[in-house]
Amino acid sequence: MDYPLDIDLDWFNELSEYPLLIAGPCSAESEEQMLRTAEYLVETKKVSVFRAGLWKPRTRPGSFEGVGAKGLPWLKKVKQETGIKIMTELARADHLDSILEAGVDMIWIGARTTTNPFAIEEIASRLKEVDIPVFVKNPLHPDMGLWLGALERINKAGVRKLAAIHRGFYPFEKSDLRHIPKWEIPIDLMIRCPGLPLVCDPSHIAGLKDIVPGIAQRAMDLHMDGLMIEVHPEPEVALSDAQQQLNFESYTTLLDNLVLRSNTFKQGEIQDLLTQYRNQIDSVDAQIFELLAQRMDLVDKIGGYKRDHKVAILQLERWTEVLRTRTAMAVQLGIGDKFIKKILDLIHQESIRIQSKH
Ligand code: PEP
Ligand code: MN
């Protein structure tokens, strides 16, 4: 049984109409860049919260690691000059004081932080003393326990203004996307934490600007409560995530074209469970097909190799081994052996057909 989250929804409902729109650059780079972006966004009236990362968690040293505390006055100025609410990533507990001092309205916890229960614990214990809404991004790898655990730890520390952000998961397989959405996981979160606001970050899922709108639409089709989108005045020269940030025009176009299926759907209501499960199945099926396509791609490569080395296509010994190990794997996962045998036979037939083309 999950720990039932004790959440306040009023703050979220007061924040905006549906959907909540959070936008702004991946990283704060200069005061001018921040103000230009915020002024544009506010003018569109299609934004409720301005985002900008100050301390950037980069995978390897040497890349731009953010302007740090230097960007806080810029963020503050954005709020003063445009009236928009401001938001940044809280990466370390000891950044909290300066963030609050600058008047930051809400924070998000980054994917790398959610991955680490020690860091979450430290942040949660600091959050006990303050009242600020916290958005928790999913961890890098598809582990529901870590995501729920971070939400629970922060909630147990007394933070009731809580929300989640779905930003996709690290792709272990080849993918056109920077991070795999695995929609079944955020849907599972909706089922397990009814009412918890859930925002999608299509920018970090897509990784490429042209793919962002499709992901944003999918999130809306699943009735997620909002979007967090990276926007930069000149994405080509952005110091981080240059390929995925939208320029001003693309941001407006995305929102103009966004189809909201039901504007009567209010955050806090839950879709019927059947639809939720069906949406999860859609996502899992898509992943099964992507993996099957990858398998066939490898089969095709092997076909070329066998031709070049004059090796027979059918290697009975290998196939017997595949059947034996895969059946054992499947049975362990609760899949019937007769069923898996049928699937494996079909896959094998198709593999032979593909290799025979060489
Ligand atoms: C970000 O929002 O800029 C960011 C670093 O996100 P994530 O933690 O999801 O990678
Ligand atoms: Mn980013």
For the structure shown, list the relevant keywords:
eight-stranded parallel β-barrel; Chorismate Mutase Domain, subunit A; about 50% helix; TIM Barrel; alpha/beta; 2 domains; globular; about 10% strand; binds manganese (II) ion
Task: Write up what this structure looks like.
With 358 residues, this protein is of the alpha/beta class. The relative contact order is 0.11. It is built from 14 helices and 8 strands. It binds phosphoenolpyruvate and manganese (II) ion (MN).
Topology:
Layout: H1 10-15, E1 20-24, H2 31-44, E2 49-51, H3 72-82, E3 85-89, H4 96-101, E4 106-109, H5 111-114, H6 117-127, E5 134-137, H7 144-156, E6 162-166, H8 184-192, E7 198-200, H9 202-206, H10 212-221, E8 226-230, H11 248-257, H12 273-308, H13 316-332, H14 337-356
Parallel strand pairs: 1-2, 1-8, 2-3, 3-4, 4-5, 5-6, 6-7, 7-8
Bound molecules: phosphoenolpyruvate (PEP) and manganese (II) ion (MN).
Residues 26, 204, 230, 240-241 line the site of manganese (II) ion.
